[in-house]
Amino acid sequence: MTTGYLFDLDETLVTYEPSTPGIFRTACERAGVEPTPAATEAIGPGFVETFVEFEESPYVGAARAARETGLDVDPEPFAETYVETELEATHVPDGVPELLSSLPSVGVVTNGYGPVQRRKLAAVGLREHVDAVVCADDVEAFKPADEPFDAVTDAVDAAEYVMVGDHVDYDIRPAADRGYRTVFVGEASAADSLADHRVDDPSALSSVPVFPRCATGE
Ligand SMILES: [Mg+2]
Fold it and tell me: Which residue, 74, 142, 180, 209, has most beta carbons within 10 Å?
């Protein structure tokens, strides 16, 4: 029986060092502006409010929200600086490329913004190991909605699926509801008891027995 392996992207296949506030600080340094607390607080809501409209880059929306607090930036070039800084902060945990390359069919299903998520996968060398990528703006819906899961399973044909992710509500619960086996990436909590397997960190994924390389003891 063929198995399709579906992965979330952020904090599942890649991690960030620094995380969002540090990325914003560095982008501000590069743009020659001071990252005020008001601007730092504004970027998250600005990103989300723009993204849910599915009309333009949420990174531009985040930059515009920061500008509205008084940050002296031009949103489009600042958004590009931010994206480049985020790409530089993106890290692939040990073992992840080897794990993906050992799997017969791999899909990525992410609530991130498609143009940036695809650049990210290519920049860190993971794109070649992935058969299909579905981002929220591709289907104009976010996990846990059915649309992203329907799209990725249409693209990665298999008799059964395993879903790997770091978010119980976006990744694990909807996948379990669809009858998939699940692997939760993150610290133990009451909510993750829903998952079939759990690892603390993406670098431990290759030890999970749902992956064939591990199951066959290779
Ligand atoms: Mg995630």
Answer: 180
Domain at 3-16+91-215: CATH code = 3.40.50.1000
Q: How far is the CA of 158 from the centre of ligand 1 (A)?
A: 23
Percent of the chain exceeding pLDDT 70 equals 96
pLDDT of residue 213: 64
The predicted pLDDT at position 116 comes to 98
Query: Residue 1: pLDDT band by 50, 70, 90 thresholds?
Result: confident
| Residue 198 alpha carbon to ligand 1 centre in Å | 14
Given the structure tokens 């990103």, which residue do they identify?
47
- Residues within 5 Å of ion ligand 1, judged at the Cβ atom: 8, 10-11, 166
The mean per-residue pLDDT over the stretch 184-204 comes to 89
CA of 32 to the centre of ligand 1 (A): 31
User: What whole-number distance in Å separates Cα of residue 172 and Cα of residue 8?
Assistant: 10
| Domain parsing of the chain, residue ranges | 3-16+91-215, 20-89
Report CA(3)–ligand 1 centroid distance (Å): 22
CB 137 within 8 A of CB 56: no
Q: How close is the Cα of 89 to the center of ligand 1, in Å?
A: 15
The Cα 161–Cα 2 span in angstroms is 9
Q: What is the pLDDT of residues 11-28, one digit of tens each?
A: 999 999 999 999 999 999
Q: Please report, in angstroms and rounded to a whole number, the separation of the first and last CA atoms in the chain.
A: 20
pTM value is 0.95
